[in-house]
Amino acid sequence: MAGLPKEQSSRRSGRSVRPQVFFDAHEPITHGKAREYGDTENPALTAFVGSLWAELHSADATPVPRCPHCAGARGRLHQRANEYHAVPYFRCADCRRLYTRLTGSPIARLRFAKKMPEFFRLLSQPVPLEEVSRRLGVEYGAVSNWLMRFRQLIALHARSRRPLDAACQARPEIPPARRVSEMRP
């Protein structure tokens, strides 16, 4: 087995030689046989996450989103998407700062954008993160970070799409706090 000590013996002399330890530094000790994982993708989840990604990574300059810095609605197109910038940049007329649709979102500054569609497909499968990182050719920490950020994005999307009245009705009425003087007998 790779990475584990191997014993050697001298078969010609019939006596065993003191075992020598050999390690393969290129293969981890925990590496086992490749396991087959089923391809049970959830197409609805893959399409949903893909649509969130496409909405934020849209190269279309309209509609102009609100400024994530000051929530101003007077933003205008600053720079169209080009070969250097995949998404358009906008400038807020109120705070004069530049922003994109990704600014302030959980998936801002994610690397390897071309690997995301395959990640979305694997996101909806019961596959360990080690296997996902192996299939995508990305480090485990990066895949773990992607998973955390997409969970945040889905939670943020679910909160923003929920009607306000339903959110207020779902929260139980909390009685007003009593003063310390009222608590003493």
Strand order of the largest sheet: 1-2-3
Q: Give the % helix.
A: 25-40%
N→C terminal distance: 74 Å
Output the structural class: mainly alpha
Descriptive report:
With 185 residues, the protein is mainly alpha-helical. Among the domains are: 43-58 and 105-158; 59-100, no CATH class. Helices cover 34% and strands 6% of the residues. The protein has helices spanning 43-56, 116-123, 129-136, 140-161, 164-170, 180-183, and strands at 75-79, 89-92, 98-99. A 3-stranded antiparallel beta sheet has the order 1-2-3, with no helix packed on it. Helix 1 packs antiparallel against helix 2 and helix 3 crosses helix 4. The protein is elongated. The model is unreliable at 3-7 and 163-185 (pLDDT under 50).
Helix-strand blueprint:
Layout: H1 43-56, E1 75-79, E2 89-92, E3 98-99, H2 116-123, H3 129-136, H4 140-161, H5 164-170, H6 180-183
Helix pairs in contact: 1-2, 3-4
What is the gist of this entry?
The chain has helices spanning 43-56, 116-123, 129-136, 140-161, 164-170, 180-183; strands at 75-79, 89-92, 98-99. By secondary structure, it is mainly α.
Keywords:
mainly alpha; 6 helices; 185 residues; elongated; three-stranded antiparallel sheet; disordered C terminus; single chain
